[in-house]
Design brief:
Elements lengths: L1 E3 L22 E8 L8 H17 L10 H9 L3 E7 L1 H8 L4 E4 L4 E4 L3 E2 L5 H4 L22 E5 L7 H18 L2 H9 L4 E4 L3 H8 L5 E4 L10 E6 L1 H8 L2
Parallel strand pairs: 2-3, 7-8
Antiparallel strand pairs: 1-9, 2-5, 2-6, 4-5, 7-10, 9-10
Helix pairs in contact: 1-5
């Protein structure tokens, strides 16, 4: 779970200090990544697919208005924006896939995202899945970020497991989504949510964190220190706004 330090939204669910959101019922967005022993996905592919899965869930008609998931989506977004990534293979994946949710595919990665559940109320099919052990590698360095799409820049200073990084990439995608106008959101959705996840050099990272683009800061519940900057959410529309004098 992470929090974003946005001055104009002092009660942001991504802030790490105590806020009114901590008094609300706490929900979590479950994501399950399909990892078979003999054919694991590449790390960057998994991160990008997880980020896209969050966007697909946010924009799905069942999550909006009077949709069947709308109430739990609202409760989740009214509290801390928690995401937990678990892994599944074989029969575990088939059982998870039978639950209500959405499977998003990347180049080879498969991630299933589910409607938010109470923090202590996971379905048994998901509760028994492992959180740890989601260690993935890129067989070769990823190429340049796709032109014209969003880029989720991961910190070069913070080491994370693949599962943790997938959750952080999802946070970054969600921040970008929140900051866009309705027209910009619909355009991004219509294009299939093009995005890339990349790790910049240290100098470029410093520039990005000072650019005015949305930043994810981790709450420090797992793996890394509280307040660590993990992701900068870079979308063409947000980049244009940040560049304005």
């Amino acid at each position: 779970m992470s929090d974003n330090d946005i001055p104009e939204t002092p009660d942001s669910p991504f802030r790490h200090e105590q806020t009114a959101r901590d008094e609300a019922p706490q929900f979590v967005l479950p994501l399950v990544v399909h990892i078979e022993k003999d054919a694991p996905p590449a790390r960057t592919d998994a991160l990008e697919t997880a980020a896209r899965a969050v966007l697909v869930m946010l924009s799905d008609e069942r999550s909006l208005g009077e949709g069947e998931w709308a109430e739990t989506m609202r409760l989740w977004q009214d509290a801390r924006i928690r995401k937990v990534v678990r892994r599944a293979r074989g029969g575990e994946w088939r059982k998870a896939s039978a639950l209500p949710g959405i499977t998003v595919t990347g180049q080879a990665a498969e991630v299933r995202v589910f409607p938010p559940v109470p923090l202590d109320g996971w379905p048994k099919e998901l509760a028994k899945l492992q959180v740890s052990g989601t260690d993935l590698d890129d067989p070769r360095p990823p190429g340049p970020a796709a032109a014209g799409g969003a880029v989720l820049w991961m910190s070069p200073d913070v080491g994370m497991s693949a599962g943790k990084a997938m959750a952080q990439a999802g946070h970054g995608a969600q921040l970008a989504w929140w900051e866009l106008s309705e027209v910009e959101r619909k355009a991004w959705q219509a294009a299939g949510f093009p995005l890339s996840v990349r790790t910049p050099e240290a100098g470029r990272w410093r520039e990005l964190t000072a650019s005015g683009l949305p930043i994810v800061r981790d709450a420090g519940f797992t793996e890394i220190a509280p307040g660590s900057c993990t992701v900068v959410a870079d979308h063409p529309a947000l980049r244009r706004r940040a560049a304005r004098p």
